[in-house]
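Sequence design from tokenized structure. All designs in this work follow the same two-part layout: the structure record, then the generated sequence. An example of the structure record is given first.
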């Protein structure tokens, strides 16, 4: 059940919530107001009914006094005629008016029916409740007796003789409660009808108003979806002069920041970005840690001499072509491009398969360059080849530089050795430090190990070479 409610809330969005809130508020308001209005209406109608009944009963009692006192046929006829006129007036809610004559008997007092709405002869008054009320000291005040169906107004008919009250009889008026409840029910029905009309009107108004307010929010949501899909050229133009407009401005600032970050990623290595994302504090602290990595250096051969003979735009086109070609291959093998050093690439490979991936990557680079050069020759474009050096070992990885400018990179003798191997490699050749090659599980066309002298090292280094046919220019 909760899941369905959540689904409806998400599907309906703000408009459904506004409609639900407004409807609930209206229902609550109408219910509270109706409760008090109904109570006031009921009390007002009852008071008015009591006042009318009391006034009518007093007039009936006054008119009946003479008839009960003289007990003549003419007075009795007049009394019945009066009761008949009251009956024929069809007063809403008036059920009965009865006049009873008080007579002395051996038992004490009896009240014999004399006139009323009922047809034919009536027996004596036998309502014990009324008789008990009449047995109390006589007074002029009207007594109200309530039953589940009606109110009874009881008025003793009194004649005062020499200052003493004499009970001549009693007048009883019955008033139906349904006439009061009917009015109250009409008030309830009207209140419900008004509430329904207001709710319908509110739903219509809130729907269109909600559409007006949610349209810019939906635009922001759509823009956020585009950004999530990698479209960073989104720019919102929302003018609502409220918090939504401020939200749009902040969204635009966020997108601009993402565009800057996206551009910045092209200037830093993946490992640098990972470090920044993993720990926002750590990337601001100079320092490092030991890691075992495989390093690949690749350098474009003959580039310096060529650059002196070419125009700057030609030089940039050539170097970008070969660096981009190699970069794509390095990334496809899970390598991390640490930096570009002029026409040279420094990349690292981590993990247990790092050595294998580095060697496979180097071979793929030499093959790709050989194929690309064949096509470039056909198009009469300048061709270049690369030399690659690979070495594995423990290095220091961390933030190198100053507090206001630093680089997340790797340093150590193993890095330097990979760079020296790259410098010593011939065009189209891959040089791998022998121990690194022995740790590989690849089956390649390795040339037998041989020692070479490396600048900066006091003793020769044993290396294994791989040469790709057609890669050497």
């Amino acid at each position: 059940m909760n899941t369905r409610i959540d689904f409806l809330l998400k599907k309906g969005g703000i408009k459904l919530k506004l409609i639900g809130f407004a409807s609930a508020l209206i229902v609550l308001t109408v219910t509270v107001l109706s409760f008090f209005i109904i109570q006031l209406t009921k009390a007002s109608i009852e008071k008015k009914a009591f006042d009318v009944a009391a006034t009518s009963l007093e007039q009936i009692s006054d008119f009946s006094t003479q008839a009960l006192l003289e007990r003549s046929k003419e007075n009795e006829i007049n009394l019945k005629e009066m009761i008949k006129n009251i009956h024929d007036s069809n007063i809403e809610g008036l059920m009965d008016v009865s006049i009873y004559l008080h007579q002395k008997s051996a038992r004490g007092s009896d009240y014999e029916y004399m006139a009323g709405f009922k047809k034919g002869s009536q027996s004596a008054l036998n309502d014990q409740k009324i008789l008990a009320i009449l047995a109390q000291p006589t007074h002029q005040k009207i007594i109200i007796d309530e039953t589940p169906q009606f109110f009874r107004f009881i008025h003793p008919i009194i004649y005062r003789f020499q200052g003493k009250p004499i009970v001549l009889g009693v007048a009883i008026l019955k008033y139906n409660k349904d006439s009061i409840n009917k009015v109250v029910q009409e008030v309830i029905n009207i209140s419900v009808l008004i509430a329904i009309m207001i709710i319908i009107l509110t739903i219509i108004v809130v729907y269109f108003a909600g559409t007006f307010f949610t349209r810019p929010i939906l635009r922001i949501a759509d823009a956020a979806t585009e950004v999530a899909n990698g479209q960073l050229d989104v720019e919102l133009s929302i003018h609502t002069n409220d918090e939504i407009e401020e939200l749009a401005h902040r969204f635009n600032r966020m997108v601009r920041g993402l565009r800057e970050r996206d551009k910045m990623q092209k200037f830093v290595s993946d490992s640098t970005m990972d470090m920044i994302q993993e720990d926002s504090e750590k990337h601001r602290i100079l320092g490092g840690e030991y890691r075992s990595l495989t390093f690949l250096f690749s350098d474009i051969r003959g580039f310096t001499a060529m650059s002196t003979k070419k125009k700057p735009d030609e030089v940039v086109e050539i170097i970008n072509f070969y660096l981009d070609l190699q970069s794509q291959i390095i990334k496809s093998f899970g390598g991390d491009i640490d930096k570009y050093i002029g026409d040279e690439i420094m990349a690292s490979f981590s993990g247990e398969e790092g050595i294998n991936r580095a060697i496979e990557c180097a071979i793929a680079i030499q093959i790709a360059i050989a194929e690309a050069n064949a096509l470039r020759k056909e198009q009469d474009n300048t061709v270049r080849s690369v030399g690659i050096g690979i070495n594995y070992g423990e290095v220091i990885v961390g933030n190198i530089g100053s507090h206001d400018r630093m680089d997340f990179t790797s340093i150590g003798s193993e890095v330097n050795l990979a760079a020296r191997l790259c410098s010593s490699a011939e065009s189209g050749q891959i040089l791998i430090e022998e121990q690194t090659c022995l740790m590989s599980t690849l089956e390649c066309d390795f040339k037998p190990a041989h020692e070479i002298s490396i600048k900066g090292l006091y003793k020769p280094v044993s290396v294994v070479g791989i040469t790709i046919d057609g890669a050497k220019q």
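The chain is about 50% helix and 25% strand. We note this feature because it recurs in several other targets discussed in the main text.
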